[in-house]
Amino acid sequence: GQSLEQPSEVTAVEGAIVQINCTYQTSGFYGLSWYQQHDGGAPTFLSYNGLDGLEETGRFSSFLSRSDSYGYLLLQELQMKDSASYFCALGGGYQKVTFGIGTKLQVIP
Amino acid sequence: DAGVTQSPTHLIKTRGQHVTLRCSPISGHKSVSWYQQVLGQGPQFIFQYYEKEERGRGNFPDRFSARQFPNYSSELNVNALLLGDSALYLCASSLGINSNQPQHFGDGTRLSIL
After folding, report:
1. What is the rounded distance in angstroms from the CA atom of residue B71 to the CA atom of residue B56?
2. What angle do CA A97, A102, A104 make, to 5 degrees?
3. Which residues of A touch B108 (CB under 8 A)?
4. Helix (H) or strand (E) holding A37
5. How far is residue A22's CA from residue A101's CA, in Å, rounded to a whole number?
6. Which residue of A30, A92, A95 is in closest CB contact with B103?
7. pLDDT tens sequence across A6-34
8. Does residue B19 contact residue B77 with C-beta atoms inside 8 Å?
9. Mutation test of the interface with chain B: which of A20, A32, A88, A94, choosing the one with the most B Cβ atoms within 10 A?
10. pLDDT per residue over A55-87, tens digit each?
């Protein structure tokens, strides 16, 4: 099977940078995705790492290291609207995606 | 363009009943996946359908079934409802079938079992 671990809660200050880590156990996977979900809302795709290294999309960056079974999501220039839950997710065959339990990010003034 | 639409938005059922949830994918998307999300947890994969065929199934009992129609919309059926089936049921669509394709989620159906 597959399992992921990420911190349950993170608090950061508006304008700062925050990193949300994700470690995983799997016998094989295609890539690591990140999704954002506001309370009462639908998950929204943020990024995908199919290869090791850094992917940058605006204020968000994501990193994957297969040798370390580790990835992270980096959010820069934090805004109040970034307060949400963030999920890392392992892509298996086709789209049998396994999600972590999520990290609740609170951005404070 | 319309996003993924799900109906109904809320539903209350009692134990032992049956429920059907519906999903319309984004136009042009041929893949539909279903997830169950319990409060405080991440979404759990239930099914994936592509071109009307089941392409993946998660660890859910046979009480859960689904199908995809020629217009790529999909239904999730759950029989003999249990209290533990209370959750948010999410539908996601994508252009292709591979896991590198971003999934676009609907707002979900919140199912409460009494």
Report:
1. 20
2. 155
3. 42
4. strand A31-37
5. 10
6. A95
7. 999 999 999 999 999 999 998 877 789 99
8. yes
9. A94
10. 998 999 999 999 999 999 999 999 999 999 999
